Amino acid sequence: MITRFAPSTTGEAHPGTLLSALLVWLDARAFGRRALLRLEDLDTTRTKAIWAQQLVDACAWLGLAWDETIVQTSRSAVHAAALDALAERGRLYPCSCSRADRSGGRRAPDGGWAYENTCRDRPLLGHWRDATEPLRARLDDDRIDLVDDGGVDLSQTPAVDMGDPIVRRRDSVVAYHLAVVADDADAGITHVVRGRDIAPSTATQIMLQRALGFATPRYRHHLLLLESRDGDKLAKLHGSIPFSSVRAHHDARSLVGILAYAAGLLSAPTPTGAANLVADFAWSKVSAIDRVISLSDRGLVVL
Q1: Residue 44's pLDDT is what?
Q2: How far is CA 192 from CA 59, 62, 132, 168, 181, in A?
Q3: 115-147 pLDDT per residue, tens
Q4: How far is CA 198 from CA 109, 157, 221, in A?
Q5: Which of 21, 108, 133, 213 lies at a CB distance of 3.0 to 4.6 Å from 94, suitable for a disulfide?
Q6: pTM beyond cutoff 0.90
Q7: How does strand 166-168 pair with strand 135-137?
Q8: Last residue of a domain, one of 151, 166, 182
């Protein structure tokens, strides 16, 4: 049994990132699973090596030791093999539609604009490596009926509700959905633990798994830490409570205690080590309700 923590390296780690790391690590250590750290750095226009190293250092500082660390940009052969397989099965097609073309249309379950599969009948001429337009994967029009291990309903008809996903961007970067599916399959991931904000993407990823003949892991989507009462999730892209500011206020045991308290694992934000939480860890103790967190002059405050 293998699980993974797979953060993008597009900004400084924040408390939401570290909460997910802690929960993935506790799940693995409590239930005897291997736990991998996968640094998702394919978006070279937004990633920085310093942020990837900060994530590695932050996890070590918190006492979260991983069984293996994988850098996603080293996985190009795995991603190319997945694209080859989709091309061989006639599932790749070029798409000329822009985001502006979709704007104002039909809302998708993730809050974005659904893609209406406008270019679905366009053929892929030549090799996918030579394509100058984004490439999409033609999904089966089947419905996925699935509730994750935490009770989150993932049911969807992704080809309709979301639209066929982009799998290779215009700049030749392999897109998130294909990369995560290919990397999970190659690593033998059996359990995926991640934030609830990713839940609407799960059905699309399952359909890609089926198209490629990959096994489907078990999924669990946990609570989020919010930066406002308006429901905005903490986002590295916007610099929300960066790790450098958090570390200036807290030592590792203090931060673990705050994160464990936010998750419902402690009744108060009492300083503790991550290893001390393993013996009593159970998902039944983890809150299903998102928590609001802010950074004051005295440090992090969970509301």
Answers
A1: 86
A2: 18, 21, 33, 23, 11
A3: 999 999 999 999 999 999 999 999 999 999 999
A4: 11, 16, 8
A5: 133
A6: yes
A7: antiparallel
A8: 182
